[in-house]
C-alpha cells in the first residue's frame, strides 16, 4: 500500500520525466490535488498519468499533458486567461495558481457546476466558470493574455485568435477528432501570428453549441 506522500512523489516524478520542467508549473501541480477532480469508479486512478472519464462522456486530461500545456502557456502573475473546455476543472485550477484570473467555459452546464463545487471546496476564488460555447470566445472579457483550448479544433478558431492580446499566447490541439492531433502554440505578433508545433496529442472534439446531456 503506497502512502499519499509516496503517491504524490511518484506523480511529480512522472511529470518531470515526461518533460514538465518549469518550476512554477510543477509547484502549481504539486498544490492542486487531481484526486479532487475525479469522481466515482476512477477516483483511485487519479494519480496515474492517463486521461480518465468524467461526466457527460468527456475526459479529464492526462496530467503530463496538462503540465506541458501549462508550461507552454508561460502564464504571468498579472495574466487574464481563458480556458475553453472546463471539463473536470483540473486544468483551470492549475492555471489559477499562476494567473490573476481564469475564465473557463464548457458547453455542458453540469460539468461547470461540478467544477465550481470543487473550486469552492479547495478555496479557489480567481476562477470564473460558466456554460457557453467557447468557440466564440468571451468577447466581453477580451482581450486575453493567454488562451488554452482543451478540445481539438480543425483550425485555431478565428474568434479566439481575435481575442488574444498582442504578445499573447494560445495553446490549442488542432486536427480531426479520433486521429492524432497536433498541439500548437500560437503567439500573436504586432502583425500576424507565429505558429509552433509542440507535440502530438489526443483530445475530445471542440463542438458547436450548448451540450445536451
Ligand atoms: N480541461 C479539462 C478537460 C477538458 S475535456 C480538464 O482539466 O478536466 C474537453 C471539454 O471541452 C469537454 O468537457 C467538452 O464538453 C468541452 N467542449 C467541447 N467543445 C466545446 C465548446 N465549443 N465550448 C466549450 N466547451 C467545449
From TrEMBL:
Catalytically driven reaction(s): [protein]-L-isoaspartate + S-adenosyl-L-methionine = [protein]-L-isoaspartate alpha-methyl ester + S-adenosyl-L-homocysteine
The active site lies at 61
Q: Where in the cell is it found?
A: Cytoplasm
The family line of this record is: Belongs to the methyltransferase superfamily. L-isoaspartyl/D-aspartyl protein methyltransferase family.
Under the heading InterPro entries, the entry gives:
PCMT, SAM-dependent_MTases_sf
EC number assigned by the record: 2.1.1.77
Please give the Gene3D superfamilies that the UniProt record associates with this protein. Vaccinia Virus protein VP39
| PANTHER family xrefs | PROTEIN-L-ISOASPARTATE O-METHYLTRANSFERASE (PTHR11579), PROTEIN-L-ISOASPARTATE(D-ASPARTATE) O-METHYLTRANSFERASE (PTHR11579:SF0)
**Example GO BP:** protein repair
What CDD domains does this protein map onto?
Answer: AdoMet_MTases
Q: Which gene encodes it?
A: pcm_1
Going by the UniProt record, its keywords in alphabetical order are:
Cytoplasm, Methyltransferase, S-adenosyl-L-methionine, Transferase
- The UniProt record lists the keyword Transmembrane: no
Q: What is the name of the protein in this document?
A: Protein-L-isoaspartate O-methyltransferase
Function, as annotated, reads: Catalyzes the methyl esterification of L-isoaspartyl residues in peptides and proteins that result from spontaneous decomposition of normal L-aspartyl and L-asparaginyl residues. It plays a role in the repair and/or degradation of damaged proteins.
Amino acid at each position: 500500500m503506497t502512502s499519499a506522500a509516496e503517491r504524490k512523489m511518484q506523480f511529480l516524478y512522472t511529470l518531470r520525466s515526461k518533460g514538465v520542467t518549469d518550476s512554477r508549473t510543477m509547484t502549481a501541480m504539486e498544490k492542486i490535488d487531481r484526486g479532487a477532480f475525479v469522481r466515482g469508479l476512477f477516483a483511485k486512478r487519479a494519480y496515474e498519468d492517463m486521461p480518465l472519464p468524467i461526466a457527460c462522456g468527456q475526459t479529464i486530461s492526462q496530467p503530463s499533458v496538462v503540465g506541458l500545456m501549462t508550461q507552454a502557456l508561460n502564464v504571468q502573475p498579472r495574466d487574464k486567461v481563458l480556458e475553453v473546455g472546463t471539463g473536470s476543472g483540473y486544468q483551470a485550477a492549475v492555471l489559477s495558481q499562476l494567473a490573476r484570473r481564469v475564465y473557463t467555459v464548457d458547453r455542458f452546464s453540469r460539468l461547470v457546476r461540478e467544477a465550481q463545487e470543487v473550486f469552492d471546496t479547495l478555496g479557489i476564488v480567481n476562477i470564473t466558470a460558466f456554460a457557453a460555447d467557447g468557440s466564440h470566445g468571451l468577447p466581453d472579457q477580451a482581450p486575453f493574455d493567454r488562451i488554452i483550448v482543451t478540445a481539438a479544433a480543425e483550425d485555431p478558431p478565428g474568434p479566439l485568435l481575435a481575442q488574444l492580446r498582442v504578445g499573447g499566447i494560445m495553446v490549442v490541439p488542432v486536427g480531426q477528432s479520433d486521429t492524432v492531433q497536433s498541439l500548437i502554440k500560437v503567439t500573436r505578433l504586432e502583425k500576424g501570428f507565429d505558429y509552433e508545433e509542440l507535440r502530438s496529442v489526443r483530445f475530445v472534439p471542440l463542438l458547436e453549441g450548448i451540450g445536451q446531456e
